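Dear colleagues,

For the upcoming journal club I promised to circulate an example of a predicted protein-ligand complex. I picked one with glutamine because it came up in last month's discussion. The inputs are reproduced below in full, followed by the predicted structure.
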Amino acid sequence: MTKGYLVLETGETFTGDWIGYESEVAGEVVFNTSMTGYQEMLTDPSYAGQILTLSYPIIGNYGISSYNYESNTVQAAAVILNDVCDEPSHFESEMTLSQNLKAAAIPGLKHVDTRSLVSTIRKYQTVKGRIVLEKVFPDYIHKFNIPNSRTLVEQVSVKRPVVMGRGNCHIVLIDFGYKKSIVEALIHEHCKVTIVPNSTSYNEIEELYPDGVIISNGPGDPKDLHAHFPLIKHLSENYPTLGICLGHQLIALAFGGRTEKMPFGHRGANHPVKNLVTGKVNMTSQNHGYVVLADGINSEDFQLLFKNVNDGSVEGMKHKKLPITSVQFHPEAHPGPSDTEYIFTDFIETARLSGGKQVWESVQL
Ligand SMILES: NC(=O)CC[C@H](N)C(=O)O
């Protein structure tokens, strides 16, 4: 077995055995605490550019199936694991995780002390690292050239519009790195979905006659995407709009709000979130490293809708007059609980009732 090393900018080195493709990469080292859903996590475009540590100790036991992809390929820059199962058992399994990483040209380390690595990340809060093959570390090892958010978003988003599903409600999904299960949730509710590149103009979107608009999840720091704020504000002011994760952060910023980097993010499938209108707590699936600041929200326009029960952070907001809702968590789940599927049903109902911009304008009058 080839040895490999994860070298952190903080000076620590973790040793493991190489799996997947043999290439050295750098990125922010993050961790996800979900017990299952490794395929969905690895193929979620929001992980682009990140070295993903899976804290659950045995990964790969149900293999890789063509049903569990969240995008066309593995998106994380690399993966760090404790034990990997190379003899998966599941009727839909088509290959092992190790084979999948190799085929996607993604490197990884197994047999790493992931408990200690997670403690280290929690201690330093944000940690960059590099996985390398040689134990002799040159001077540059602690310097990281990590792609910026615009490059990451560019890498993962569609280049031309894609239409999926049929139905009596047309949703335009502005793509910053969408997860397929968002589209599946919409199709399940009988929507036609047009996924458009994030560079699409307001007029081009208007010509599609959407009933509603979704601003997708995606990788990187939302502040770096400031060029898109005017489009997002203009769209949200004219169509029923739902923002998911990065989309929520972009809506907050577009309306003058603020975001910041979190200590080590929320990545897992059991994050409790309280709906401040109903008082109900739901378990949610999450994957984010940035957060909207409560005191930065423009309170003339928006009210807080969801709060994280563990740390009190903002998990969602709602416009006071316009049909704009945004959530930091993932209502489409995958992986994770589907308690908050109602976010989609409520949004689609609003979109259907509004019949898009034209009718919405007349309803407002
Ligand atoms: N899943 C997402 O959309 C992540 C949003 C953003 N990149 C963050 O880390 O906070």
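Two points we might discuss: The chain has a mean pLDDT of 95. The two ends are 70 Å apart (CA to CA).

See you all on Thursday,
B. R.
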